[in-house]
Structures are given as C-alpha cells and as structure tokens.
# Entry
Amino acid sequence: MIAFVAFVDRTNERIGRVVSWLTLGMVLLQFAIVVLRYVFGAGWIAAQEAVVYMHAAVFLGAAGYTLRHDGHVRVDIFYGPAGPRARAWVDMLGALVLLLPMSAALFWLAWPYVAASWAVLEGSPEGQNGIPAIFLLKSLILVFAVLVGLQGLALAARSLAVVRGHVEAAPEHEEGGHGV
# Structure
C-alpha cells in the first residue's frame, strides 16, 4: 500500500510540475497573439487554439497534483476544527463516497466521447488553420479522471493508515502533502 501511495504521489507531483510550466507558455503566447493582432494586424488561429490546449492541460493535468497538496476548495465547517483522526475519516469517506465514484463516472461517460473523436482523428473546427488534434484535447478528460481517481485512492489509503493509528497525520501545510 505504501509503495502504491508513493508511486501515485510521485506521478502526480511530476505531472503537476511539468504542466505548471504551461502557464508561462500561455502567458507568453497570449502576449504574442495580442501584439500580433493589435500592432501588426495579423492573427494565427493555431496559436489561439494552443492557448486553449495549454489551459486545458494545466487544469486537467494538474488536478491530481492539486489534490495531493490539499489545494482543492473545501468547506471547513467541520474539517477545520477537527483533529487529525477526524480529518482522516472525512478525507477517506469523501474519497470513497464522492471522489472515486465521480472519477469513475466521468471516465465511463467520457470514454465514448473521446473514442469517437479518436476514431476520426478529430481536428480543429477551423480546418487547415487550426490545430488538427482535438482528439488529444478531449483525451485530457480521461487523463483527469485517472489522475484524480488514483490520487483519491492514495488519499483514502493514507487516511486509513491514520485512522488505524499506523502513521501520524502530516503537519498542517507540509510541503508534499499528507505523510505516510
């Protein structure tokens, strides 16, 4: 179990750090698009679509990273004042009852949508001027479901270890997420 948790944490950590660099690429490319448009009167549809692709990759690819670092929005009415074991129960039940079913349902429902896009190698609605890889963009939905689902399993396993008293909960705001 510890090896699985460590593997998922490492995987989401690496993916999150890699896709985070796309935010810099988005800013620079968007700046170039604005300069080209308003200074030179030129436009490039593929560049505009590339910003959308990068934006999707950042949010869908880094969701597991964000979960690993406890960065998603949470209503802290009960969680905030709770002790480590109570928090572990909330994390474990939340992952098992809400997060994992949502990830599985999203994967299940998105599969035909993504498969249909791959079947025709769906390209840009802008034709020759756009990026001919909408099928790759749509595939990020499946990547999101898998990465968040795996991180949810790791969260549940880590929480179970805390509930059972095998490990202590990680200190608040520790770099690298919860400890096991």
Remarks:
- Helices lie at 2-38, 45-61, 63-68, 76-79, 84-119, 134-163.
